[in-house]
Amino acid sequence: MPKKVLVIDDSTVLRNIIVFNLKKAGYEIAEAVDGVDALDKMQNFCPDILILDLMMPKLDGFGVLKEKAKMEAFQGTPAIILTAKGGEDDRENALNLGAIDVLTKPFSPKQLLDSVKKVVGDAV
């Protein structure tokens, strides 16, 4: 059974690139356009991992990490953070809130795929 990945990013273009590459690698994908949408989708999709943008409308990536930590069913769900900011504070804050990796945009699809595989194992 393929691993489930929830891709959370307000950029349609970036989301499409990520989804294309992860589907090609054999992962099952759901998409969310912001943090509020992500928390809602988590309930029904039950992802094995989150790929989470930091800067989004309604609820940012930090907010999603904080809410996820309160949700017993998802406390152990790993999150890979995507950020355009690339500041050390953001990286440190994300890791302190439970993220397992932080990738700075632009990143290569291979870099993201390698990070996902390292966390959840190869889906194929």
Give an overview in words.
The chain has 124 residues and is an alpha/beta fold. It has one domain (4-120): Rossmann fold, CATH 3.40.50.2300. It has helices at residues 12-24, 35-45, 61-70, 88-96, 109-120; strands at residues 4-8, 28-32, 49-53, 79-83, 101-104. Helix 1 (12-24) crosses helix 5 (109-120) and helix 2 packs parallel to helix 3 (61-70). The mean pLDDT is 93.
* Spans where pLDDT lies below 50 across 5 or more residues: none
Largest sheet: 5 strands, parallel
How many E strands? 5
> How many structural units, i.e. domains?
1
Morphology call: globular
CATH class: Alpha Beta
What is the structure about, briefly put?
The protein is built from five helices and five strands, in the order βαβαβαβαβα. With 124 residues, the protein is of the alpha/beta class.
Kindly list the characteristics that best describe this protein.
Rossmann fold; alpha/beta; 5-stranded parallel beta sheet; single chain; globular; 5 helices; 124 residues
Task: Summarize the topology.
Layout: E1 4-8, H1 12-24, E2 28-32, H2 35-45, E3 49-53, H3 61-70, E4 79-83, H4 88-96, E5 101-104, H5 109-120
Parallel strand pairs: 1-2, 1-3, 3-4, 4-5
Helix pairs in contact: 1-5, 2-3
